[in-house]
Design goal:
357 residues, 6-stranded mixed β-sheet, 5-stranded mixed β-sheet, globular
Length: 357
């Protein structure tokens, strides 16, 4: 059964409260990973509209996260904002500062605050709530993880079922996995941690594994020059300069899965959101594990939230919130996670039969 047919089959089991009058909504969304998430978003919106014929949602693919944020801000300043945007969780502060978003709390009951909003993992709400209000709803959320090529591990004499437990193991394994041809040219690097695209995100993962963090929980203070941050950056640079396990220079975020598929790197750091892409395209068995830490396990959360843009009628915004509630419910959220690899941000999604299967 395809995702689209599964979604249409599932909507018959759920009752929806459609607005009294026809409502037209616009919804901007980005794509930052490989695979077919744009098709999945369209399937979700189509399924919702089939169950709610009085609501029309124009789901508009708006490019990268940065492109999407820019287009949403431009549309809002031009007096024609979309009702919904998926943008980075860290964009919450920008949207609040620019007074471009509405609090979801204004459109839900106290019971919904407790049961729906209260059902998201607290770690994902740290950059979804601010000063006691809910400004973003976690959806395509992620963490960076390490992927390893089991065939490359086996060829190098390593246990293909065990990835590195910490940074030191990653470096030692990386040395074993780095291969050179007869002329001394590297044909396979041990590890590939991209340094463009989302560099601060991955750096913050190394910092977390070094016992630190890059900012406080309210987003008002940064710790770029802390010993933990500096040590993390030094360890990253050492991978290519002294350890010899990573290619020198800038490594591209978008090209990271391709480097993995083509055997240019035996281990890569990238998002859980690439899981389905890797599963579909890797020509070998692979493993997935937590980021290897310098001192401890640690990883940042990332990915996108739903944001409710100012500038529309309450009727439109209520309909937008209803769609967000539906999209984050276990049935639909499980379909999204399975189709993309993004982390389901609620415990009840993981308890669904689909996710267990």
């Amino acid at each position: 059964m395809t995702l689209r047919s599964a979604l249409f089959a599932s909507i018959a089991l759920v009752a929806f409260a459609a607005p009294a009058q026809a409502v037209d909504l616009e919804f901007y969304f980005p794509v930052a990973v490989g695979g077919k998430p744009a098709e999945t978003v369209q399937a979700l919106t189509d399924a919702y509209m089939a169950a709610n014929p009085d609501v029309k949602i124009n789901a508009i693919y708006t490019g990268s996260y940065a492109d999407t944020t820019t287009k949403a801000i431009t549309a809002a300043r031009g007096g024609n904002p979309p009702q919904l945007v998926i943008s980075l969780s860290t964009d919450m502060y920008k949207f609040i500062d620019e007074e471009l978003v509405e609090s979801f709390d204004r459109f839900v009951t106290d019971a919904e605050k407790a049961e729906w909003i209260g059902g998201f993992y607290p770690s994902f709400m740290l950059n979804s709530q601010y000063e006691g209000e809910t400004w973003g709803i976690p959806f395509q959320r992620s963490t960076p993880v390490l992927y390893w090529n089991k065939a490359a591990f086996e060829e190098a004499g390593l246990d293909p079922e065990k990835g590195p437990a910490n940074w030191a193991e990653m470096v030692e394994m990386g040395k074993t996995l780095t291969k050179k041809d007869a002329n001394g040219n590297v044909t396979q690097w041990g590890v590939h941690i991209p340094s463009s695209g989302f560099p601060s995100w991955l750096w913050s993962g190394i910092v977390a594994g070094n016992g630190g963090k890059l900012q406080n929980d309210s987003g008002t203070e940064v710790y770029f020059n802390s010993p933990e941050a500096i040590g993390a950056l030094e360890a990253l640079v050492a991978l290519s300069e002294t350890d010899g396990v990573q290619a020198p220079g800038i490594l591209d975020w978008g090209g990271t899965p391709k480097a993995f598929f083509e055997g240019q790197a035996a281990m890569i750091w990238t998002t859980t959101g690439n899981l389905t892409n890797v599963r579909a395209n890797a020509p070998f068995a692979f493993g997935v594990g937590m980021l290897p830490g310098l001192k401890q396990p640690g990883a940042p959360t990332g990915g996108g939230n739903f944001y409710l843009m100012k500038g529309s009628s309450d009727e439109e915004l209520k309909a937008a919130v209803d769609f967000v509630k539906w999209a984050t419910a276990p049935e639909q959220a499980a379909d999204w996670t399975i189709a993309t690899g993004y982390v389901a941000p609620r415990a009840d999604v993981w308890e669904s039969d689909k996710m267990k299967a």
